């Protein structure tokens, strides 16, 4: 460089300056990655779920944005669903709630997701690695939309004027009393549970279970048929009183009767009550992990009628 008195001065260069200069040259030598151009209009509609601490329903109402999500351990969520159900429902109208299994479940067991759905929680997380009744219910909840992972909540769970409380039912649009008539007729080609043993023919029985608000929870079962998994016939009729059909699910469960120990699982199928169609129906059967059992079916007659 040149000074004001037109004399040339030698610039002193430190080792750090040399290192920095080399670094800059290397960076210039490397080709720059192409930047992706996004339309601002599209970028503006991308909303991420921001995790925030839950400090109470009133605090969330006044301070929490719609894209902010609170996470609840199952014990806290169940307590809120029992003591402040209506407030929890109002919270979940425009706020996001995620429920997760307690850390004490070292065996990866699951809690019942139905009470969480009853108060409108959107993200009810389960241990998917564990096949269980709770996972069967979760699978049944999303049958109606092809397992896309989304179900629109009933209108009474989306209205701020709603006073719906699943634990203490009062008159309202949620109260649509119905009677579910189920006749368990027969089954076909049930699988053998112990293929390595000669006497492995099952003694099947059928349980029909209702899950929903506490007033609707019920279970009834047939007698067992001895040594007949090919075409057992029961012809038994059951009747269930349903108060809130939009939140109810029905589950058909087949077990191998055992007088000395717990019955063994054969197959099951769960679906929302609103998806039940009247008439004679062949019900497919699924394994514990939710896979279809080839050729095996349950034959039933169902009638869902308004309660007069």
From TrEMBL:
Q: What residue stretches are annotated with the PI-PLC Y-box domain?
A: 42-158
Can you give the residue ranges of the C2 domain? Answer: 160-287
One of this protein's Pfam families, by short name?
A: C2
Superkingdom of the organism of origin: Eukaryota
Q: What is this protein called?
A: Phosphoinositide phospholipase C
What is the phylogenetic placement of the source species in the record? Eukaryota, Metazoa, Chordata, Craniata, Vertebrata
* Comp. bias regions, Acidic residues: 8-19
Q: Which UniProt keywords apply?
A: Hydrolase, Lipid degradation, Lipid metabolism
Please list the residue ranges that the record marks as compositionally biased, kind Basic and acidic residues: 20-29
- Provenance organism: Ameca splendens
Q: Which reaction does it catalyse?
A: a 1,2-diacyl-sn-glycero-3-phospho-(1D-myo-inositol-4,5-bisphosphate) + H2O = 1D-myo-inositol 1,4,5-trisphosphate + a 1,2-diacyl-sn-glycerol + H(+)
Q: Which parts of the sequence are annotated with region: Disordered?
A: 1-30
EC code(s) of this entry:
3.1.4.11
């Amino acid at each position: 460089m040149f000074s004001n008195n037109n004399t040339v001065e030698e610039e002193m260069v430190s080792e750090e300056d040399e290192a920095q200069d080399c670094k800059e040259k290397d960076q210039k030598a490397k080709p720059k990655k192409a930047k992706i151009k996004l339309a601002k209009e599209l970028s503006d509609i991308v909303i991420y779920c921001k995790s925030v601490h839950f400090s109470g329903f009133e605090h969330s109402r006044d301070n929490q944005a719609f894209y902010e999500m609170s996470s609840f351990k199952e014990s806290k969520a169940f307590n809120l669903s029992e003591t402040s159900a209506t407030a929890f429902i109002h919270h979940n109208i425009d706020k996001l709630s995620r429920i997760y299994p307690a850390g004490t479940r070292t065996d990866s067991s699951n809690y019942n997701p139905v009470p969480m759905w009853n108060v409108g929680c959107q993200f009810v997380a389960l241990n998917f690695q564990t096949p269980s009744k709770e996972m069967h219910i979760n699978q049944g909840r999303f049958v109606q939309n092809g397992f896309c992972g989304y179900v629109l909540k009933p209108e009474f769970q989306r209205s701020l004027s709603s006073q719906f409380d699943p634990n203490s039912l009062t008159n309202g649009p949620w109260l649509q009393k119905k009677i579910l008539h189920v006749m368990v007729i027969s089954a076909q080609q049930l699988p053998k549970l112990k293929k390595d043993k000669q006497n492995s023919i099952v003694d099947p029985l059928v349980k029909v279970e209702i899950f929903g608000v506490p007033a609707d929870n019920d279970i009834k079962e047939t007698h067992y048929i001895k040594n007949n998994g090919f075409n057992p016939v029961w012809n038994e009729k059951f009747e269930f009183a349903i108060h809130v059909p939009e939140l109810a699910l029905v589950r058909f469960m087949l077990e191998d009767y055992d007088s000395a120990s717990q019955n063994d699982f054969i197959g099951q199928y769960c679906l929302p009550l609103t998806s039940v169609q009247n008439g004679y129906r062949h019900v497919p059967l699924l394994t514990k992990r939710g896979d279809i059992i080839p050729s095996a079916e349950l034959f039933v007659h169902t009638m869902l009628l308004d309660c007069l």
